[in-house]
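Inputs:
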Amino acid sequence: MRAIDRKLWRDLWHMRGQAVAIALVVMCGVGTYVMFLSTLGALRATQDDYYREYRFAEVFATLKRAPESLRARIAAIPGVERVETRVVEAVRLDMPDFAEPVSARMVSLADDAPHGLNGLHLREGRLPLPGRADEVVVSTPFAKAHTLHPGDRFHAILNGRRQALTVVGTALSPEFVQQLRPGSAFPDPKRYGVMWMGRKALGQAYDLDGAFNDLALSLRPGADAQDVIDRVDALITPFGGLGAYARKDQLSHRFLTQELDQLGTLATLFPTMFMGVAAFLLNVVISRLVTMQREQIATLKAFGYGNGAVTVHYLKLVAVIAGAGIAGGILLGVWLGHALSGIYMEFYYFPWLRFSLQPATMLEAAGASLAAAGAGTIVAVWRAARLSPAQAMRPEPPPRYRETLVEQLGLKRWLSQPTRMILRHIWRKPLKSALTVLGIALACGIILTGLFQRDTVGFMMNVHYGLAQREDLSVAFTDPTAYRARFDLAGLHGVEHVEVFRSVPVRLRHGHLEHRTTIRGIEPDGELQRLLDTELRPVAMPSEGILMTDHLGKMLGVRVGDRIVVEVLEGNRPLREAVVAGLVKEYLGVAAYMDLAALNRFMHEGPTISGAWLAVDHAQLQGLYARLKELPRVAGVAERIQEIRNFNRLMDETMLFFTYVSTVFAVVIAFGVIYNSARIALTERGRELASLRVLGFTRGEIGYILLGELGILTAVAIPLGLKLGEAMCYYIALTMQTDLFRVPVVLVPQTYAFAVAVVIVSALLSGLAVRRRLDRLDLIAVLKTPE
Amino acid sequence: MPEQVSPPPLCSPAPRPIFEARGLTKVYQMGEVRVDALRGVDLDLYAGELVVLLGPSGSGKSTLLNILGGLDTPTSGTVRYAEHDLTVDDDAAMTQYRREHVGFVFQFYNLIPSLTARENVALVTEIAHDPMTPEEALALVGLAPRMDHFPSQMSGGEQQRVAIARAVAKRPQVLLCDEPTGALDAQTGVMVLEVIARVNQELGTTTVVITHNAVIAAMADRVVHFGDGHVVRIERNESRKAASELSW
Ligand SMILES: Nc1ncnc2c1ncn2[C@@H]1O[C@H](COP(=O)(O)OP(=O)(O)OP(=O)(O)O)[C@@H](O)[C@H]1O
Ligand SMILES: [Mg+2]
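Outputs:
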């Protein structure tokens, strides 16, 4: 091995502590990047493949009842490739050993065309035999929640008739990757499921033999989806069509897409931030490391090594360190990406996961790290090589210290000699001190970004379920129902308070902007559902006009007082106008609201409701469930506690994983940076400190001189870091806005305390490590080698 | 008396000197403080001669040597080695010059701390044209037994000898030594000077030795007395003493 390469390995070994710390910083940056992007890539690839292989439809429509003969006319629409007519019904189930009401979406399967649209991926068993009205395939999540297997039986109320059903298979469908009860924000497989029955059997049960009430279409490549939708609408409106919609508005797809988009934002922004911070720190640390070698650089040059050779030498050194970090980061990232995708798989019912190594992602991460490290090296070598070797080989000229501001202010006599040395040293190289401060501050800041999501989500839940939605149970009716159903509910034993609502599916339009949502008519002085303004104060419901969430307002570009077009997607689908009466603050969803009576008037209908919110006596809950099941028109019951639980489960498994991983990484980065700052300070000042020891300073005193500086820089960095962290959180929140939810920036005191503690503990540990070295400082070496 | 290459008498048509310095000045500006390290140096050095540079501390000896070795550039004036203009600020050319022609012994040794004695020498021989092996070079300075020791495991004098082995190992055309015996006892000092004289004579290496020790001046062809940034006077020794004849 050439002598110069030997020097490389010896130098590496000599600085192994620092090298490891730097490699760890790189590893965390690269690891985060690879983890998120590979997870995102895997989920996206899986979604695409799944949709394609199982022929997920592109246009959907629901109607009241149309004869099968309509099918040919729909198939004749230009651009339509395949048409599938179906029967889809909401049913109530009676599960053995489960008292609470359970509802399901029953979807028909074409008896004759096994490879139709929205194909089933059978997990167990087989498809129902044609004509068998007692055989169903149940969705895998529902089967799991109730431990159902082929051969198990339960009862369902089909069209008012109680009927025994046998499970013949369990399956997944691209149409229900996210199985959400309409109107619910979180999956609840115990209380809501999807199941499939033969077309003929289901049609007969609902008097839809030779007819259908649901449509799924696929399009030819290049077809104009909107044009197809318009033509379909024209055909189905006479049959009670509710408005065809494209895949992008399909419930499961929309949720999935939004969540993946959100993950995508996070998965780009967050690791980019991490990589950025890691790269910056790498750059700073490396350039200081190389700067410390300026005498050796000069010596190499004096003996005829050119700038190129010297630069390559240090680049190799740095490449080894960064390379180790990159390799570790890629391995870690792939491993964690696997784990994270696995967690997502629990929520998105995909039949498989297409996890693949993504060379592009890895190259990006590696490239960014190497570029940062390389730039730091080249700049530092260049700075050292720019001096004439004669000058660079001399020890740095005795530094010109100045009195610091503090001393100039006349505080001098209060400061001990060592304290003055600390202050003067910081003062002498303000840029270097500033970079150290910035490095520690960034490390402190990214700790906040990891924890902020948890804090924020906690806050959102509190607002949503603590201040706004306060009912115990919500009851949804199968169809709009006369107002007096309220009194039936109020009369049930155990119900303490009832508030009712009306939900109308609509398309809101303002200029060329439009959005599909529901208008909810609520009682003006409701206690159980309250609307909050931007300061979280309850808003009084105006007796006329429409209220909407500020986010929906933004999406439609409306302000208070604007008129919007409301296209009702129910009944005979009237087209009306309404005035925006106000905006409300909601973190979840994009709902619009009206006074209940006003909405009934708006719909030209009598007092009609779609559901109710109940406050109940919890002691009576079990009995109440049984009685609710008996009410004819109840489609489903949701318990608020369950919603919160479901949400927490979702949060726990995805976000907390995320939070933990990013927090651990942030902590490692913080420690890596602080440890390096301390070690570099030691190397830079080792001789000076040893000389002081020779002159009679105690270990304690020189320890104080060195670590006092680190202490002051850390103390300055912490408040700055907290501010930087907040700024990063605001940025994340800003880019994460979706119509699913908006993220306010909330950071609880414990989070700040944690970040501060991590920085302080890192500083203490680094101080301790350095202190141990200080104690073993080689005084003889100082005396022996002239500098 | 050993055969020697000495400069011809000044009256005869002079051969072109190998080094030619004219009006060299070097100013270090440090904030408000201005240090005039060289204040107009005119000096010619001839191929193959051994010159001793004597002068008080701070008089600019090291500064001059650094400029001759292409480690530094003068503030004004000209300096030339053979066909090389040493005043140009061309890093690549200077690197090439140092690599191909010059061997250095620095006042402060400047060994690479992470390399052993042998590796410190190898660092230079690996990029030289026709070098000795590091082992040969170290044997010359009597360090064969200490070849695998790191600088931190050696005394100041031993480090100085490694520095000399490193300088001579490439068989340079120019050997520039800044106080090569500063840290050595008389006996070792003599040994080191013998090595330098041998390289000078056997390879015809033009050699400049800085020293505070006036005794050493006796082994030179010429002695340049330096003071306050310029050449005070130049003495020519009628005969050169062998290093072994010196003692202090
Ligand atoms: N890089 C530098 N920056 C500032 N001043 C310098 C620098 N190098 C040398 N000097 C100053 O230039 C003058 C000459 O220095 P030089 O090192 O050439 O002296 P010297 O004759 O070799 O002394 P010594 O015998 O002590 O080694 C001194 O006053 C020194 O302080
Ligand atoms: Mg000197």
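Remarks. Chain B has a mean pLDDT of 87. Residues A 391, 394, 397; B 28, 30, 35, 37, 55, 57-63, 107 surround adenosine-5'-triphosphate (ligand 1) (CB under 6 Å).
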